[in-house]
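Example record

The entry below shows one chain as it appears in the dataset: sequence first, then structure tokens.
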Amino acid sequence: MRIGQGFDVHAFGDGDHVVLGGVRVPHRRGVVAHSDGDVVIHALCDAIFGALALGDIGKHFPPSDPRWRDADSRQFLRHAASLMTQQGYRLGNADVTVIAEAPKVGPHAQAMRENLAADLGCGPDRISIKATTTEKLGFTGRGEGIAAQACVLLERV
């Protein structure tokens, strides 16, 4: 077995939605990002890459590369899943926490789980999506941005 953890953060900017776990979530702000800024998927990719000892998402998809401008982060996750499979692992489980005062994650959590499961080749029962606030403290508490952390357990096939 291998364990990995990941973290991602993006500042809020202009826009009317955020993308979380591949789901377009209505919000009064968007995020400032090179790709679609999906903090859930970025943290999850980093957790998988970490468990496989393959660096981080920036190594695989550098923000300096124009190919990834406005990219759908689900393609990043499918790449991580492919590397996981190539190295002889499968997802045991993933636990993701979104850190933000808003938007509300709960109404979208099941759709996120289904998207992530489809991209990782597992059932949604292996993926947990939850959210917390920082009780109005720090940059997320002030509504300046959104963050996510992820932990994965990979099992040898």
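Notes for this example: The longest strand covers residues 2-13. The first helix runs from residue 39 to 51.
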